[in-house]
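Two entries, shown back to back:
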Amino acid sequence: AAARLLLGRTDHASVIVRTGASGCVLAVRGGEMTRVPAPVVQAVDTTGAGDTHAGVFIAGLADGLSPARAAARANAAAAFSVTRPGPATSPTRAALDAWLAERRG
């Protein structure tokens, strides 16, 4: 509902709304609303998870990822970050890639 409301308030932008441990909702202008799930993890400290998500999402878009792929990567980075104590736990690109590869098995 929040993504739909925010999308209606802008003429050009798309919207992403974090939904905590479940991931986010992506509302791309001219497209569908998409729920993008987050990896399930045991949270230790959620401090900085939103900042991690925002930074990785923007970095993904800057790297040429589609909004959905950037959102999935941002969800993974936020999930990674909450498994570590402290506020400065955003993973590096290499650490996130390794963590995702490890989870895929």
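entry 2 starts here
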Amino acid sequence: MTEARHRLGGLLSREPRVVTAGVEVLADALERQAVPVEAVDWRPPPPGTEAALAAVLGDPGHADANARAVRRMVTARPHLVDVRPAREVLGLETGSFLHAGPPLEWDRASGPMRGALIGAMLLEELAETPLGAERELERGGAAFEPCHHHGAVGPMAGVVSPSMWMLVVEDAEYRGTSYCSLNEGLGKVLRYGAYGPEVIERLRWMGAVLGPALQAAVRLHGPLDLLSLIAQALQMGDELHNRNRAATSLLLRELAPDLAAADVPRDQVAAALRFAAGNDHFFLNAGMAAAKASADAARGVPGSGLVVAMARNGTDFGIQVSGTGDRWFTGPAGVPDGLYLGGYGPDDANPDIGDSAITETAGMGGFALAAAPAIVRFVGGEVPDAVAATQRMYEITLAEHPALQIPLLSFRGTPVGIDVARVVRTGILPVIDTGIAGREAGTGQVGAGLVEPPAGVFTDALHALAEIV
């Protein structure tokens, strides 16, 4: 009783601390009276989710399943081990392509996805003109399916054709293998749906020169620890999705001596180094493959609500969850909110596209914005917005990454392991920083910004998990 009286007395002798949850009118009124207010980003779970939340959270094995899944995600050890053509490592045959995001048919494909598929047809000499390529695709003259179905990921449209060279990443801990294509650079590139002569010429040079040169360097170097490199890059100002400047420099520092020592013509060595050094996003694809390997290590844990894939095809946004197998939960992809290049604006933007949200899935990208304050100059907002975005993500994740640490947050680990139940219960959606592709095929990149998934995909996944547990 005495202790209770002491606490009550303290309320009268100290300055009040006010916390508001979802009541903006109250918070605004108090702030106008100079009362310090801490607003909590909270909203009640969507109607109709109560039973599913109770079933999942009440399952005795759910917490252990989540802990096991996220432990596998953060203890994976992805290493770059090779660079090889997609025909060899993915078994792609002539007329077969991969694409970003969940499954998609030609008649629902967006402009940039169509543009990238047209470009792939031209690259593989399955058509002589863009119009001819489009007609072949319309009549079903080529087969295409998601990169994720083959252990691969692709940025933006993510289109992979048989002759493209792939980064091969192996998880030294759980023995999984993942793949990603080589980064083309910025501007008019296939992944943004451009397919002009300069795009095809660059891709052919990458297949003839860059891919073989990188293969020689990686094989001479031996397995390259990508997680260690990513951890260093985070402490140098990258978040490993829209900012890869430090990671690209670190990768080149590792591989340049071996590239110079390999049996590669000197002019090709110089061209490969010049191309990679002139592209601050060169590391992105390696980082995506590393994130894919880490996320795949957490797949297939019964009862776990851990998200193991977030991906967009320019029409749909899809997620996959550890405890529900290979099933996709999809909803409409949203248009990013960000900064636009030149005279472009929101009306020119395509809905979100790409497998690169695998970085957020594994605790990088938008989840590590606090590590990269300079990113706000590329995606919009202010530095405090970047810090706040990362801090919100701790509310919906299961762990803090032991290797990926944020200096600005006193070296706290990045939030990692999105839990569908936490997303539904809090109403906080994952934040993704992304490039923006032009709506029309052939346009290319028009900007960069931030985007959130549709809330319904997490609700659907929760209901599916509830039916299993």
